[in-house]
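ESCALATION

Customer reports they have been waiting on this structure for their group meeting. Please prioritize. Original submission:
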Amino acid sequence: MRFPSRLASAFFGAALLLGVAVGPAPAGARAAELSAGDQALVERAGAYLDSLASVRGRFQQTDARGQELGGTLYLKRPGLARFVYDPPSELLVVSDGRSVTVSDPRLKTTNRYPLSFTPLSLILSKHAGIGHGVTITRVTNLGDGFAITAHATAHPRAGQIILSFSVNPMRLTGWTLTDAEGQTTQVRLTSLAAAPLDASLFRPPSYYDRRQPASP
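Update from on-call: job pushed to the front of the queue and completed.
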């Protein structure tokens, strides 16, 4: 099972952050032979992601056409996420721990997909996905951080994601998804902070619901 390409653009740009038919991993992709330094970065990233129990932040996404959209995200691990796009977009994406629901009232559509088939599963899994059921194909050192390229081992064709981190301080700064046509959607996190989140935010919407939690 794969997501429709238009969704990948929708969630993250043109067509969810997770509703997109994220493209397959490169043919023949396999776990990279990591150096001791790279392995240390992977372990550090995993420990950091495991620490993100309940957080709220802002995101900015850019799709393959250069269109930019912003919004507010809520993550409660394991399994829960909510992405509310700023007006005039009416897109809403909710993960309830089992499935991801993408709602767009302008198109009058609501679509649901198994969480395990989305790139979000790499971030929302109980053990953050890094090294747990994930194939890492590359670790890239950046000037002020590093990036990890990975896909779910059990579903290598379900998508590829590049997670980007800063190191001082240690922080997830965003991710990049690649679709089946080789087009990319980039998400930048402009803030991310611990916040108490009500479980009701992550119920699959039966109607379009833009509710946001009260400020703590």
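Sent to customer with the following note: The chain has three helices and eleven strands.
Escalation resolved.
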